[in-house]
Amino acid sequence: MAERNGPSSFKVGFRKSLFSFFTMTSLLFVLSWFFVMQSTYRPNPMEYNLMPNSKHLSALDESEYEMLKQNVQSSFGNIKLVKHGGKCHQNDELVIKVYMYDLPPEFHFGLLDWKPNGSSVWPDVRNNIPGYPGGLNLQHSIEFWLTLDILASEFPQAPKARTVIRVKNSSEADIIYVPFFSSLSYNRYSKGKKKEKKNGNKILQEKLVKHLTTQEQWKRSGGKDHLILAHHPNSMLEARMKLWPATFILSDFGRYPPNIANVEKDVIAPYKHLIPSYLNDNSTFDSRPTLLYFQGAIYRKDGGLARQELFYLLKNEKDVHFSFGSIQKDGIKKATEGMRASKFCLNIAGDTPSSNRLFDAIASHCVPVIISDAIELPYEDVIDYSEFCIFVPTVDAIKENFLINFIRGISKQEWTRMWNMLKEIEHFFEFHFPSKENDAVQMIWQAVARKVPAIRLKLNRHGRFSRSPPSTDKGLMSIPTPRNFW
Ligand SMILES: *[C@@H]1O[C@H](CO)[C@@H](O)[C@H](O)[C@H]1NC(C)=O
Ligand SMILES: *[C@@H]1O[C@H](CO)[C@@H](O)[C@H](O)[C@H]1NC(C)=O
Ligand SMILES: *[C@@H]1O[C@H](CO)[C@@H](O)[C@H](O)[C@H]1NC(C)=O
Question: Domain range for residue 76?
Answer without folding.
Answer: 45-86
